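User: Okay, second chain of the day. Same drill as before: sequence in, structure tokens out.
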Amino acid sequence: MPFFPSWPPEVGEDAIHRYIFALNPKVFAPWLKVEGAVMRGESAFTPGDRELMGGFTSRLNECTVCASTHGEAAVLLGVDADALEGLMADIDTAPVREELKPVFHFIRKLTLTPYKMIQSDADKVFAAGWDERALQDAILVTCVYSFMNRIVDGHGLPRDAAIFAKSGHRLVERGYVPATDWADAATD
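Assistant: Same drill. Structure tokens below.
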């Protein structure tokens, strides 16, 4: 149940766009451009890799909304359906490409204990063949989802994974939603 009394109690998958973003369009219009650039802009990581990173960060933060949405989008973009659960259980045996494993170790530490990050964490990513831009891309994805996890949980969105898994389909079909798609919808 959303924490905002003006929102209907049955708020579902459109809650992020229809209600949260429209509440403060001057903040969220530029934010959506940043989010879209991070998740679909040029990168050494595929869109599926980045969706998996977003789902992983969200699972670490225990955000059902983002974990289910971005985990589903990753699968639809070709990531192994067992990858997210595998990463949660053990990064080193997860069904992801070997060169991604140091990146996921980095993301895990950045999400759970950011104050403990040290040079060797980055060096392991570089040793796996990634350059500085790729590491920054992984950091940005982690930041996007740490931010969005707090946005959706702070607004009290429901924690039903089935509702938000459908949003993963929308991300794959339409990409990240431009401000014009939700600003008008907020006044429906």
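The first helix runs from residue 15 to 23.

User: Thanks, on to the next one.
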